[in-house]
Amino acid sequence: MGDDRKYWVDTLVRITQPVLNSLSERRMVLDMPIEAREGDRSNYTYLEALGRTLAGMAPWLEHGPRSGEEGEIRSNMAVMARQAIEAATDPTSPDYMNFTKGGQPLVDAAFLANAVLRAPNELYAMLGDKVKANLISALRSTRVIRPVFSNWLLFSAMIEAALFRMGVEDWDRMRVDYALRQHQQWYKGDGVYGDGPAFHWDYYNSFVIQPMLVDILDAIGDQFEDWATLQVKVLKRAVRYAAILERLISPEGTFPPLGRSLAYRFGAFQHLSLMSLREELPEGLLPAQVRCALTAVIRKQIQMPGTFDDSGWLRIGFAGSQPEIGEGYISTGSLYLCTTVFLALGLSPEAEFWQGEAEWTALKAWSGGTIQIDKTISGEM
Known about the structure:
Strand content: under 5%
Order of helices and strands: HHHHHHHHHEEHHHHH
Strand order of the largest sheet: 1-2
Distance between the termini: 37 Å
Number of strands: 2
Oligomer: single chain
């Protein structure tokens, strides 16, 4: 257990340190390279890096140890995270970020908002009053952006949910309700949603859809009776999708390179890590086997040559440096969605997740071991 947890912490810090170091010193625009296959992404890449970095590390910042070596590391990273938020939302800062121009800022403001929901003390309550006001202003300013008719509806909803939790009285219930209703219509069955009306073979159910539905309803599901009813359905689907994700991890710690945004690497398993954090894994799926599976995936991808540049920034790729797989919306900042695999670091070191060793499903299956029958969830959920 100790080795795996330390490896997770060390890897998270390795990935995120360049982002938080540069922003805390208000040097991001100077320090951060912008790798992109096409176009100028300088209007978007910095907020991408901030929002996605904090969305992944937030539970660890909020609930991680307060003492010992890990506690000291966590405390230092939390200070830098708050300084990063200050730098990004202060209009006088050289690293003041774009929250209004183009469509992309809506996406990454939502990841920043999600981080606040996941770490309300460390990433909001402990901010100074001026920084709180700047953050609220920045999030509210994204309302000028009209979301695409897809998973993007959840970005608008996530921002409003965070504003509600921050005490903003004019949070927009309609943006939330619209996103929830549409995703209910886009549910395809057996724990999977369409990304908009169509089904896509990709990892967007884990990159965005299921984690945001779960977190939004956690924050505001009690505001209306039909939201509370939907929350029950969403969680049942979320459990099923966690089971699917775990079975996609091969005995070697690989997973199918399906669909778009493969440069998010092991961010494809955000949802499985979230359900581990919530201690709501499917029946019969041991927390330790999920940890061992996720650790195998993290090791497989992070140790590929070319994953980082000489200054420690992530490079575009699925396994190493593969710039050709970067879609037009992918740039250096985008890549930090990979941090969401580390959500389970919000569990106590004493949690069952960190105890013992266990083979994951595919490893057992391909070694002739005993595995459970995979069961769908049928009917209208």
